[in-house]
Amino acid sequence: MCVLQLQMHRANLTLNLHKWKGEVLMSVRQRACGLLASSLLMVSLWATPAEAHVQFETRQACITSPALQGQQPTLLQLEVAETNEQRARGLMERTSLSDNSGMVFIYPTTGLRSFWMYRTRIPLDIAFMNAQGVVMEVQQMAPCHERKASRCPTYRPAVPYKMALEMAAGRFAALHITTGSKLSLHACPQEIGNPS
């Protein structure tokens, strides 16, 4: 009887040992899979900058210029950068912009801020505007080819602003966008008598 009990006890120990090994093995497999998944996620985030996934709403906007008094305002298609992530991404990595398109940066408060051209591939015109959309200052910005952001020049207006408009270099001259021009973030009104 004692031998039988000893054998049963030994069998239980063996069974428990195998069960414990299975649980440990399963735990190790789960941890390895979790570690692998985390590693793959980190590699994908490193390989593809997070800001590449930033989405922008596109709105029609209307700009009038004092140089074109009596003429129709110009209709623009603008991507809107209202969040910190959107403003940080801006027009980085773009290789072109269509003629009447660009990006408007909207800030929660009026203030003095600087823009830079780090990872921006095309030259841009920038207009700094007050809360009513009136252009107070215009500058031209050249792409920065430096690998470190800290080596890129910054562009800062002389006056505080609430919004900024960026378009491809030369478009401000073509559209007569100057100090005193006014941007409205709505479609241009239709002329009376024109079909909708």
UniProtKB/TrEMBL annotation:
Record organism: Aliidiomarina taiwanensis
Origin: domain of life: Bacteria
Species classification: Bacteria, Pseudomonadati, Pseudomonadota, Gammaproteobacteria, Alteromonadales
Pfam families for this protein: DUF192 (PF02643)
Full protein name: DUF192 domain-containing protein
